[in-house]
Amino acid sequence: MSGATVAAAVTPGRTATGPADGPWLLGVRHHGPGSARAVLAALRAARPAAVLIEGPPEGDALLPLAADPHMRPPVALLAHAVDDPGRASFWPMAAFSPEWVAIRWALDHDVPVRFIDLPAAHSLALKETAPGEPVEGPERTEEEEEITPVVDPIRVLAETAGYDDPERWWEDVVEHRSPIGVTDSGAPPSEDAPGDALAPFGALAEAMGALREAYGDGGQPRDAVREAYMRIQLRTVRKEFGEGVAVVCGAWHVPALAARTTLAADRALLKGLPKVKTDLTWVPWTHRRLARRSGYGAGIDSPGWYGHLFDAADRPIERWMTKVAGLLRGEDRFVSTAHVIEAVRLAETLAALRGRPLAGLGETTDAVRAVMCEGSDVPLALVRDRLIVGESLGEVPDTAPAVPLQRDLTRSQRTLRLKPEASERELDLDLRKETDAARSRLLHRLRLLDVGWGDPVAGRGSTGTFRESWRLRWEPELHVRVAEAGVWGTTVLTAATAKAASQAVAATALADVTALAEHCLLAELPDALPVVMRALADRAALDADVGHLADALPALARSLRYGDVRSTDTAALTEVAAGLAERICVGLPPACTGLDPDGAEALRGQVEAVHGAIGLLDTGAEPGTGLRGRWGAVLHKLAARDAVAGIIRGRATRLLLDEGRLAEGEAARLMGLALSPGTPPADAAAWIEGFVGGASGGGMLLVHDERLLGLVDAWLTGVPADQFTDVLPLLRRTFSAYEPGVRRTLGELVRRGPVPEGARRDDAAPATGGFGPGIDPVRADAVEPVLRLLLGRPPEPVEAAV
To answer: How does strand 467-472 pair with strand 425-430?
Structure first.
């Protein structure tokens, strides 16, 4: 049967074949609004005695919840193995899913409704899922994937009908054709036209029968098992309710359900199936998760568009353009009523030129791009993200089953007014406020439990101060993560505490234990901290690797600062951190010799991290004393020792200069030695990378200290031509990190040439690019009060100013 025949079959006037009194096999496309409207029309016309749905039978007890006023699709049935919650499957349903429409019709009319697919106990036992990566619906093994490709029946029918886009074909023959018996107002169909309402399903059944004859199981060998179970369930229901039952299932399965088989043959296919104990519940779903690009096997490209087609019974294009205009206006783009009218006209014109019955997503998108977006794909990307795909997040009533940990999390979310949302949003917290501090604790505890609802945002505020910033986004898979974390406890606090203690005992690397200590302080887990501290002391005493100690110290230093913010007793942590710092000071200089380039780069990063950590640990010490004094002596050794890798010597010199422990003249002397003619160019380039590389302000240092710039310039111009290409990549990496303005200024300074000995730049050639020839003392003095105010310094006494 051709795709054109299917198109004709769903056209008014075509009647279905087969018995008029059922059973009615309503083959659908999952999440198709046209299929949903057709199912509604068929159910209204046929008035079946029972409705059967493709889905796990263990979910029958959960079906009445679909009628709860607090249940709002998109939602999904979640099934997971009790002993292995990471092995899970979802059965998603949107408001425009035919299955959801059939369930709601049955519940509204007191008609028995049941699921008849293979039980989740078997399907979960048959599937292999990587931990934390649940997959919706039955899954094939790698061997099955290699044997034969999966047939996409919609694509085959579209190609048969001469279409190169299956979505466009489906829209033309199904979504854009109102099913018989469904009026624009949504009124019930006439009672005398049941055959017309069933016509589309007869046509699709015939088409699928031809495809099954040509392609067999279509690359889905497990479908035979599922269809055998569905046939057995259908036999049982027909004995109970007679022939007048309706089955809503994927159109691909209709020929198999209509096939004549024996009960014994079907039972033989099910013999010996593995089985696991399962739990099922309803969970919120998202339109974004229904999209095919998210990896969902039965996904669609445009769930937001399909939801609009289902909801807009009349004038769908006009209503869609109005939605788009509202979105763009909310983003401060000028879109007038005239734009909306012109976009509708253009979409309809494009549909007529392309021979389509109604403007589809392609025509409306082209019209929006041309009229409302002025040909730009930038605002169009927003339309795709917010409307075509959509950000809808469903809701599930509190009466739905849930693991105790999920219930505790839900209570905490409501108490703290942290509503899960499908769209990404940022949250700024002030830890001095009790509510924000509680929110921070909850988010950190969830991160420890691998429930990634929120991620800290770097750069929005210091993580060691009273402010935190988070990026939140709730994904349906997090329900599986919560179920997995339920093995640790029944509340978020007890679960996080138990997992932290277990990880501390099992950890073998010192850095892992220090990171865990940091998490315990952030999440405020006082009962886990003693276990972590014992493990930390044991690992620190046994680990003699300076690199491991250097990796561990920064987390401890941050933890002590967090303890100050959260008023946590960290005396034991302070003692361990001080011991680690002393051991690093002793062992670091020998560890910095004899390194290859990769090892030197890694150790450079560790030196920087230790420098920052010691600054946090010894904030009250005077320069040159205490722990800071010890560390300063270490940096001096590293900067002056020729055996130390150039990148580390350069970084040590820079750190000392920034701390004020090294005079500018001494820094220039060390640079001159590092860039002397006797130094191999690669080593000299590494020293420059260490001294001015990265985003640490090295560019501005060269701008303001032209002696250092002159040394670099003189060295660079003296590198032999045959060695220049060897050092060029490293230099490019160093200077490419600078701001464009800094690079431009450095280029201008180099172009002007060196400053004469004893002279200043403002005594040389006049400056260009908007700068005066020298400093204006009057204007400079006027800035000083403002700087004092910004720095919190008291105003200068009037007598001193005079």
So the answer is: antiparallel
Edge-to-edge strands, sheet with 24-28: 24-28, 245-250, 50-53, 113-115
**Of the ranges 286-300, 615-629, 678-692, which is most confident?**
678-692
User: Which residues, 6+ apart, have CB-to-CB distance to 86 below 8 Å?
Assistant: 80, 129, 131, 132, 134, 480, 484
Phi first, then psi, for residue 233 (nearest 5°) are -65, -35
Give the pLDDT confidence of 179-231 residue by residue, as tens digits: 433 443 334 444 444 457 787 788 888 889 988 988 888 888 889 999 999 99
CB-based contacts of 360, cutoff 8 Å, min separation 6: 168, 171, 172, 175, 176, 351
367-400 pLDDT, tens digit each? 999 999 999 999 999 999 999 988 788 899 988 9
Q: How far apart are CA 686 and CA 38, in angstroms?
A: 71
Which one, of 308, 487, 441, lies nearest residue 383 by Cα?
308
Position 112 scores a pLDDT of 96
> Where does the pLDDT of residue 178 fall: very low under 50, low under 70, confident under 90, or very high at 90 and above?
low
Distance from C-alpha of 289 to C-alpha of 294, rounded to nearest angstrom: 6
d(CA 528, CA 532): 6
User: Do residues 383 and 355 lie in contact, with contact meaning Cβ atoms separated by under 8 Å?
Assistant: no
The 3-state DSSP class for residue 401 equals coil
- Calculate the alpha carbon distances from 232 to 28, 125, 239, 604, 626 in Å: 21, 20, 11, 69, 81
pLDDT-derived band at 617, boundaries 50, 70, 90:
confident
The Cα 396–Cα 69 span in angstroms is 9
Q: How many other CB atoms are there within 10 angstroms of residue 464's CB atom?
A: 15
Q: Is residue 700 within 8 Å of 745, Cβ to Cβ?
A: no
Structure tokens at 660: 């004020």
